[in-house]
Amino acid sequence: MRRVAVMGMLLLAACSGPSPVSMAPPAQDAAGKAFNSPPPGMAAVYFYNPTNNGPAINVTVGPMVIGRLAPMSWMRTELGAGWHAISCTTANSANPSSITVAPGQIRFVDIEMPPGSAVCSIREASPEAGRAAVLAGQRTMQ
Fold it and tell me: Which of 84, 85, 130, 141 is deepest in the core (most CB within 10 A)?
């Protein structure tokens, strides 16, 4: 009987598979949650997914995917001043947007796949909402 239980646990572990998103080490998570100013001439943009479940979502700035967000995760990137095309994409959807940033700014962008939706959503959030979501989540690797 014990052998059957062990085999069942191994099978369950094999089915769960690896996480679709790699998480950053705790030190990098803590550093980002300090909300330090960006380097001179740059702006910091935090992308976050505040939902409790859903698919991994790719985040694109210009033509480059900068990372993937899982539920309750976030990432930070520094951008030069000016206008930037941004988008969220999943296996079955894409949603474009844009953001204009100035040197020294810290901005927050909420990216999620609302329940029942066929398309990921992307919208700028207030600093209060963005900081709260980042503090509640985990940093992803980029």
Answer: 130
